[in-house]
C-alpha cells in the first residue's frame, strides 16, 4: 500500500499518543514559520527531535499531518468553548467579555498554524467555514448561558460582533491591525461595555 493511500495510525498506548502530540506540535511550529508548501516532513521530524521513520509511521504524508492538525484544533476549540460556556453561567457580562477575549489570545499560537494551512489550500473553503461556524456557535452558547433571556437571533448578532472584536485583539497582538500601546485595553473596555449593555437586560 502506498504512503498516499495508507491511513494515519492512531496510537493505542500513552507513549504513542505523546509522540503524536509532539510531532503535531512540531508540525504546527514549522508550518507557522515557513508555510505549508515550504514545510517538509524532514523539517517536522527534526523539530520534534524524532526520526523521520517515526513521523512516517504515524503520518504517511504531509497532507495527513495537515488533516490531523485540523482535527486536533477542532477538538481543542470545542473543549475551550465548552469551558467558556460553563464559566459564563456564573460570570457577569463584563467578566464574560474578558473571558472571551482571553480565550482567543490563549488559542492564538495554535490558530496561527491552522491559518497558515487554510491560506495555503484553496480546496479547504468548507473547513474554513466550519471553523467560523464553530467559533460563532461557541460564543453564542456562552452568551445565552450568561443571559438566559436573550433571543436567539440577537445572540447570533452579538456573537458575530464579539468574535470580530476577539480577532481584532489578536491582530493588535500580531501588529497586523493598527494599534498603540493602550489600544488593547481600550478594546477590552469597549467589549465589557458592549456586553454589559446587551446582556444585562436579558439576565434573570
Description:
The chain is an all-alpha fold. 75% of the residues lie in helices and 0% in strands. The chain has eight helices and no strands. It has helices at residues 14-34, 41-47, 52-58, 62-88, 93-120, 125-146, 152-174, 183-199. Helix 6 (125-146) crosses helix 7. Residues 1-5 have low confidence and may be disordered. It comes from Labrys neptuniae. Residues 40-59 bind DNA.
Question: Biggest β-sheet, characterized?
Answer: none
If helices are DSSP runs of H or I spanning 4 or more residues, what is the number of helices? 8
Give the % helix: over 70%
**Radius of gyration from the CA trace?**
20 Å
User: How many domain regions?
Assistant: 2
- What is the oligomeric state here? single chain
Number of strands: 0
Q: Helix- and strand-based class? A: mainly alpha
Query: What order do the helices and strands follow?
Result: HHHHHHHH
- Provide the β-strand percentage band: under 5%
Q: How many angstroms does the end-to-end distance come to?
A: 60 Å
| Shape call | elongated
Reported by name, the CATH topology of the largest domain is Tetracycline Repressor, domain 2
State the CATH class of the largest domain: Mainly Alpha
What does the average pLDDT come to?
87
Annotated CATH architecture of the largest domain: Orthogonal Bundle
The poorly predicted ranges are: 1-5
Amino acid at each position: 500500500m502506498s504512503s498516499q493511500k495508507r491511513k494515519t495510525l492512531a496510537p493505542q498506548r500513552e507513549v504513542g499518543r505523546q509522540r503524536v502530540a509532539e510531532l503535531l506540535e512540531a508540525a504546527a511550529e514549522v508550518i507557522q514559520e515557513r508555510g505549508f508548501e515550504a514545510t517538509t516532513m524532514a523539517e517536522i521530524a527534526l523539530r520534534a527531535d524524532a526520526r523521520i521513520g517515526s513521523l512516517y509511521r504515524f503520518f504517511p504524508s504531509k497532507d495527513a499531518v495537515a488533516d490531523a492538525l485540523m482535527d486536533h484544533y477542532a477538538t481543542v476549540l470545542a473543549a475551550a468553548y465548552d469551558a467558556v460556556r460553563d464559566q459564563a453561567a456564573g460570570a457577569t457580562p463584563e467578566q464574560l467579555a474578558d473571558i472571551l477575549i482571553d480565550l482567543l489570545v490563549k488559542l492564538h499560537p495554535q490558530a496561527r498554524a491552522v491559518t497558515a494551512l487554510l491560506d495555503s489550500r484553496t480546496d479547504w473553503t468548507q473547513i474554513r467555514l466550519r471553523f467560523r461556524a464553530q467559533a460563532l456557535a461557541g460564543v453564542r452558547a456562552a452568551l445565552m448561558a450568561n443571559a438566559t433571556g436573550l433571543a436567539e437571533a440577537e445572540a447570533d448578532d452579538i456573537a458575530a460582533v464579539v468574535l470580530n472584536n476577539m480577532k481584532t485583539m489578536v491582530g493588535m497582538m500580531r501588529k497586523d491591525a493598527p494599534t498603540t500601546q493602550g489600544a488593547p485595553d481600550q478594546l477590552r473596555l469597549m467589549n465589557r461595555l458592549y456586553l454589559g449593555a446587551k446582556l444585562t437586560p436579558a439576565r434573570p
